[in-house]
Amino acid sequence: MTLLPLAPVADVDLAPAGPAHAARVLVPRIVSAVARRAAFLRRAATRMPLVSQVSDRRYQRRLTKHASQLPLPSAGQLKVLVALNDAGVAVRPADLPAEVVDSADRLVELLRRKNVDEPCVKATPRELAVDPTLFTWGLSDHLLDLAECHIGLPVRYLGMEVKRELVQSAAGRNHEVVRRWHLDHEDRRIFKVIVYLSDVDAGAGPFGYIHQAHSATIRGSRGLDLRGVPDDEMHDVVPRHQWAQVTGPRMTSVLVDTGQVFHRVFPPTETERYSVTFAYSSRSPYYAYSRLMLPRRAIEQVRERLSPRQWDALCVGRTRRSRAA
Length: 325
What we know:
The protein is α+β, with helices and mostly antiparallel strands. It has one domain: Sandwich (Jelly Rolls), CATH 2.60.120. It has 11 helices and 10 strands. The strands form 2 sheets. Strands 2-8-5-10-4-3 form a 6-stranded antiparallel β-sheet. The two termini are about 40 Å apart. Residues about 1-15, about 25-40 and about 320-325 have low confidence and may be disordered.
């Protein structure tokens, strides 16, 4: 696996059968877009001087109260946490059990068979629920420990996303923002584990990021739309030779705080990319995407396989939007 400094750039088209169909498709999207915008504004408000002071004090109290209850990291986990604190990203080989790899491969094959004209296609919650093995691996104690140590609070498993990045332009589509530099806004701290399910080189849509030190500077900049910064604007702040790409063989994992580090998906130019992302936040995020979670019935069916800690991390019954202190 390698980190390559590099340059350059680049959801779903609506083809309604009629007004009723259009309404069924559009209304949920509009509601979701409004909720995401509200979450972005709530997070932005915590950076305003007066709001920030009150919010930061409350947040620090929560961190201090939970500090003595944090899991004790192993030597390997400690190296990951140090890398997250320093660069904002840690790259490691993914050690998935055979049955989890098999579950992931079945989803890859499902996505490969889809005939689409889109820049990205993702497995739906119902498709993920057919075989929840990959989903439940995201609740393993190793990952929950890492997430809790990084976030500093009891964690919420936001779910997972399996996707196929195609050699298609995202210009003018909802997926375009993901291929621009951006921060995620689910929470103050976010822990994500991205596992490549195919070999990824510079032409296969590698994950790109800006080092933590530079990202911290940009977060304080004014005049940039932090939800999607085009390449030319990013180049004005951070030269292209300081942009990083993560390439590597299948089963390379990228552990990252996507709320602190500017990141993007570089557009595939030669080969499609398949990957799975596991996401975590505190128990009180600004926003939680329902598309990352299995349907409620499927969640109830796996309950008996989960420990109390794993079940608590699912935060079943909580709404997607939750106020963060």
